[in-house]
Amino acid sequence: MHTPEVTKMQDSVNQKTKYIKIAATIALVGNAILAAMKITAGVLSQSGALIGDGIDSSTDVLISIVMLAVVRVLMKPADVEHPWGHRRVETIATAFLSFIIFFAGGQLIINSLSNLIADVHTSIPSAASVAVIVISIVGKILLAFSQYILGKRADSAIIKANAKNMAGDILISFVVLVGFAFTFLTDFGHADSIAAILIGAWIVKTAIGIFIDANIELMDGNSNMESYRVILEAVNSVEGAGNPHRARMRCIAGFWDISFDINVSPKCSVSDAHRIASRVESEIKKRLENVFDIVIHVEPSGDDAVEAFGLSEDAISHTGSNDPGEG
């Protein structure tokens, strides 16, 4: 028989996998169509920027395939080798995707710089190429909006990362369009290569941002001090509990794993101390959604041993402080 917390978490996993499937399918079909259009038009018009935009859409197709693979792993229950479950596969996949995006942007920059060095000139873009870019901008707006909505509903890092990536794709296509316009108005043959370099730089920047966000979770970090203040408020609301310290919080694909110590009176019985800790746990769950697990270690007041890990009450009280405190 599952506890309410386990049932809630499993329902959340099922809901998340449903939204990831929908988001991945929409992105897969939409980007495959756009990639084929842009690469074909880019080859025919000999536009490096347009081909680069098409390659970027091709990486989005790969992202969608990885998202579908993530669903299969995400649905697996916890086992002996993975007692925490398989939820972090979403974060690992998000970090992996950042490398794919980074490689695509870097390759585009290298190819475009080579064209500039070789003094390769681009011809005036055709009406068909311009039409493809306009269609791409409209299509990417629709895709980015759909990923944003589904990512928010599922609270999914990988869908949100894909939404951010596609929002960048809109700017990429717009830069290509500006490059086309500049080439048409001035007959400057290097405008396309310069636009492609700017596109590549944006792709690389997006990849780095996605990786940094994923890495915080992979390193069990948490830059949001408001979540720590929830612990402080919960402890202070329970009579008999005090001095929250050694507080550590990590996020596992949207669910919180929390560990901290509290002080109680040395005269407290084991039963009373347990009751106080249980009340603190309940108060945290009232204030914080998606709690995976809470471990509270009870210590007698007056025990002033220096602790090496976690945040003290003083550190939690000061906004922006991330220095380990003392117990």
How many β strands by DSSP? 3
CATH class of the largest domain reads Mainly Alpha
Given the helix and strand composition, which structural class is it? mainly alpha
Q: Provide the succession of SSEs.
A: HHHHHHHEEHEH
Gap between N and C termini: 38 Å
Named CATH topology of the largest domain: Alpha-lytic protease prodomain-like
Number of domain modules: 2
Helix content: 55-70%
**Unreliable parts:** 320-327
Overall form: elongated
Mean pLDDT level: 78
Number of helices: 9
What is the assigned CATH homologous superfamily of the largest domain? Cation efflux protein transmembrane domain
CATH architecture of the largest domain: Up-down Bundle
- Strand content bin: 5-15%
